[in-house]
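INFO batch 0412 | record 1 of 1 | parsing
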Amino acid sequence: MRVVILFGSEMGTSEAVAECVADELSAYDVSVYDMTDFDPGDLTADDFHVIVCSTYGDGDLPTGAEPFFDRLDATTPDLTGLRFAVFGLGDTVYGDTYNRGGEIAAEKLTACGATQIGEHGRHDASTGVRAKDMAREWARTLPVPAPAAV
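INFO prediction complete | emitting tokens
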């Protein structure tokens, strides 16, 4: 099973977290991509996808994730069979918009037919827990699907 980790970041934290998740999932064939450089047309149900996404501004997707999701919205591919997990980064100081970037990512993928599996990870920058540490622990619990039978 190939694991494709896509990160959307504003200031680089999501990229660092994505690398930690990749380390935890190193038993699989893992690739890490900036969403800016990944075409939604390359999403495939043969891979397990992990989305690591921060929240920016007033509960928006980070600048690094906008082009990916704009292309997804424009093409609305059929993602039936695609499985994904989300680790979001946010800060409860922002109230209702806390961790909204990861939630938006999940909503957009499920709207195209993809299925979110595992616990939706939500890091809170207001806590003393480092995002990398929380992400490592979260990644250990992911139910990465077995490869499809041939």
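INFO post-check: Strands lie at 2-8, 29-34, 47-54, 83-90, 115-116, 121-124.
INFO record closed
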